[in-house]
Design a protein that fits this description.
It is built from eleven helices and two strands. It is mainly alpha-helical and 296 residues long. The chain has a two-stranded antiparallel sheet with strand order 1-2. Helix 1 runs parallel beside helix 5, helix 5 runs antiparallel to helix 10 and helix 9 crosses helix 10. The chain is globular, with a radius of gyration of 19 Å. The termini are far apart. The relative contact order is 0.19.
Length: 296
Amino acid sequence: MSLFSFLGAIELGLIYGLVGLAVYLSFRVLNFPDLTVDGSFPLGASVCAAAIVGGLDPVTATVMAVLAGALAGWITAVLAVRFGILHLLASILVMIALFSINIRIMGRPNVALLGQTTLFTPFESLSFLAFDQARILVELALLVVVTLALSRYLHSDQGLALRASGANPRMARAQGIDTDRQVLGGMALSNAICALAGALFAQANGFADVTMGLGTIVVGLAAVIVGETLFRLKGILGALVACVLGSLLYRLVIAFALDVQVLGIEASDLNLVTALLVGFALLAPKLRARRRRARP
């Protein structure tokens, strides 16, 4: 694997590590199967790109993207909690709606950010570090901050109420916890993190496109499942770090598979490689348990 491919895989792994954290929050903590991320990821990119092209500074544009993602997650939770729509169906409805909304926000299917000031622009002129490496350090710093902040939140009283609402809603309500409000807040937080990932992706790659969210939920699930299966770190912080490591490993495996010509894998085989990797991660614990039971 070339250095260019390796750095590209690491950068994508860091950005999609945020998606892994978002999916972990909805899928594992809240037990809420959420396909909204396929829409909130490009929503973050669309809002950020439109705001930057419109003349706003990149920090304000990124904050607006995060708030837009939180609103999308909150609407999904409202449809599920207040109106009783099935979780999966509610998230599909919002995801489909966001496709059209993102085009409305950008005014066209895609927006280029070439020549615009982004969060990474101040690091272009560093003399002691290449721009792509500086960009990776900035993304790593943001990912560490979000991971630690999310871990601290999940250990707080509010975070414990959120975890109880997902683990055992009946018991949580018996303890006086407003589980509906916890789901609303948790879904908003999950999609806010996903929208942040979309905003970073747009600024790092110089464009926002309405189709860039396709398969985001699969990548997020891959990060969660691969991280949980292979790294097995304990505690909430350990689980979050495992999601990030799973995202990095997933991207490195994909890059390696596409880079090794002898395997004959092409870019069009990306979904097949993803399915095989996630399938292996799902089967590995069962095969390990079966082998353990077979021992005399």
